Amino acid sequence: MSKTIDVLLDAFEHEAKQARVVIAAIGNTDMAYSPQEGMRTLEELANHLAQIPLLDPVMYAKEIADVEQARAREKELHRQDIDGFLAVLDEGIQAVKQRFTGMTEREFFAKTLKPFYEKTEKNWAYYMPEFISHIAMHKMQLWMYLKLAGVKVDMMTYYGVVSDS
Questions:
Q1: Is residue 164, in this structure, part of any structural domain at all?
Q2: What is the per-residue pLDDT across 65-122, written as a single tens digit (0 to 9) for each?
Q3: What domain range is 58 assigned to?
Q4: Number of domains forming the structure of the chain
Q5: Looking at the DSSP assignment, which residues form a beta bridge with residue 122?
Q6: Considering the domain boundaries, does residue 165 fall inside one?
Q7: Would you tell me the crossing angle of helices 82-100 and 4-24 to the nearest 10 degrees?
Q8: What is the CATH number of the domain that holds 60?
Q9: Is residue 48 over pLDDT 80?
Q10: Is 80 contained in some domain?
Q11: 96 in a structural domain
Q12: What is the mean pLDDT of residues 1-13?
């Protein structure tokens, strides 16, 4: 029987691999592209998506104390091209796997997590689906940016299927 953490870790890896395909689909698209004034640029959005696995867990675990530290870390991780985005994402995937591999069910369900923006402590069973959803949301947003920018992406791209063409 699988442990809860193993099931969620598999779901995380699946979602992250799909996000990787969508990031790679950026191709030669203008990184300054934004669908509308006031929205993130393509570069900002790709950075945000790539950084989620590195940033979300450390915020939940109280390893980032406030919004200023979070912004400083985002700035350190900022990249300007696809290879950079993918390198940050891959680093995050490895960090998540390292954090959760070998974690006991007791540790996973212990209410010891409280990011700087929360009032009550929660557990990894709460936050892990939260950051998987965070990846999924911004994966779809990036996919939509690409679609609006005229990039030939389809639902196969969204679901992480690399086309031969």
A1: no
A2: 999 999 999 999 999 999 999 999 999 999 999 999 989 999 999 999 999 999 999 9
A3: 4-158
A4: 1
A5: 113
A6: no
A7: 180
A8: 1.20.120.450
A9: yes
A10: yes
A11: yes
A12: 90
Q: Which residue has the tokens 């911004």?
A: 138
**pLDDT reported for residue 164:** 61
- Backbone φ and ψ for 50, nearest 5 degrees, come out as -65, -30
- Enter the tokens of residue 37: 């004034």
Classify burial at 42, counting beta carbons within 10 Å of its beta carbon; exposed 0-12, middle 13-18, buried 19 or more.
buried
| Residue 33, token pair as written in the block | 């592209």
- DSSP string for the chain: ---HHHHHHHHHHHHHHHHHHHHHTTTT--TT--SSTTSPPHHHHHHHHHHHHHHHHHHHTT-S-SHHHHHHHHHHH--SSHHHHHHHHHHHHHHHHHHHTT--HHHHH---B--TT-SS-B-HHHHHHHHHHHHHHHHHHHHHHHHHTT----HHHHTTPPP--
Residue 67 corresponds to which tokens in the numbers above?
């919004």
